[in-house]
Amino acid sequence: MLTAANLSLQRNGKMLLEDVSVTLKQGEVTVLLGPNGAGKSTLLALLSGLQSPDYGQVLLDQQLLSGIDSQLRARLLAMYTQQQPLNFPFRVEEVVALGCYPLRLGADATAERVAECLAQFELDTLARRDYTSLSGGEQQRVQVARVMAQVGSGCQVVLLDEPVSEMDLKYQQLLLQRIRVTADEGVAVCCVLHDLNLAAQLADRVVLLRQGRMVAEGPVSTVMTAASLSELYSVPVHQVASEPHPVFVSGVV
Questions:
Q1: How far is 244 from 253, CA to CA, in rounded Å?
Q2: Which helix (H) or strand (E) holds 231?
Q3: What is the dihedral of CA 242, 211, 79, 93, to 10 degrees?
Q4: For residue 99, is pLDDT > 80?
Q5: How far apart are CA 138 and CA 167, in angstroms?
Q6: Residue 2: how many CB atoms within 10 A of its CB?
Q7: 107-120 and 136-149 are packed helices; what angle lies between their axes, rounded to 10 degrees?
Q8: Domain of 78, in residue numbers
Q9: What is the distance between the alpha carbons of residues 186 and 191, in angstroms, rounded to a whole number?
């Protein structure tokens, strides 16, 4: 379990995050929602240890995240970030294999794990392609596969920052299924999404962020209402269905 208490971060005189507390439980998917600049990516950076808060603390399995050795942390926590700079002509299979490095697998086990992740995200036919020659959506699938390759038996937390932003509908659903399976295997998953309907489909719990502050947290049924989402995004949001999960549309209907 990962617990963050009273996190605050300020940069250049601007408060990016203020007094945010959140708990990520194993077996659950938590989705962060909010408008641009709400602090979603900043919160993930603090939860992952990529940045340190000005105030507050992050505990992973009751240990300060900042005090955990980086090699061990990479086995306990995997993260997908929006920015994935990779300009070298690595083959797709080599990029995915990078995710196996923290697990210290042998050559055969690494090859087996890479093949499994390539198959999960339907990347088999791209395995030997130059990564830099791929489309944006294909590159995103490769990077997500790399992160999932890092999720070994000891992994406790997976953090995903807008992992479906460039994927088409088929691969969005493929990734959501993979996230659900990962959570069901006992991993705590936290994901930033902009699509309200994908969030309602995936989440066990939802955190609403606005201007660096948490304005609501809880199950989809209580947090994702037309009223709360309209206020969050400053645009009319309407719920048009409730089964099998809430369905929302924005604007005038």
A1: 22
A2: helix 226-233
A3: 80
A4: yes
A5: 8
A6: 23
A7: 130
A8: 2-250
A9: 16
> What torsion do the CA atoms of 19, 212, 208, 32 make, to the nearest 10 degrees?
-100
Tokens encoding 220: 């989809």
| pLDDT tens readout for residues 47-64 | 999 999 999 999 998 899
Structure confidence at residue 252 (pLDDT): 60
* Amino acid occupying residue 13: G
Cα end-to-end distance, the chain, whole Å: 41
Residues 6+ positions from 157 with CB-CB distance below 8 Å:
2, 24, 47, 60, 76, 77, 78, 187, 188, 189, 190
Residues 6+ apart with CB under 8 A from 115: 124
| 148 in Cβ contact with 99 (< 8 Å) | yes
What domain count does the chain have? 1
Q: What is the CATH number of the domain that holds 157?
A: 3.40.50.300
175-216 residue pLDDT tens: 999 999 999 999 999 999 999 999 999 999 999 999 999 999
Query: For the segment 104-145, what is each residue's pLDDT rounded down to a tens digit?
Result: 888 999 999 999 999 999 999 999 999 999 999 999 999 999
Phi first, then psi: give them for residue 213, nearest 5 degrees.
Answer: -120, 150
88 burial type by CB count under 10 A (0-12 exposed, 13-18 middle, 19+ buried): exposed
Task: Give alpha helix (H) positions in 121-219.
Answer: 136-149, 169-184, 196-202
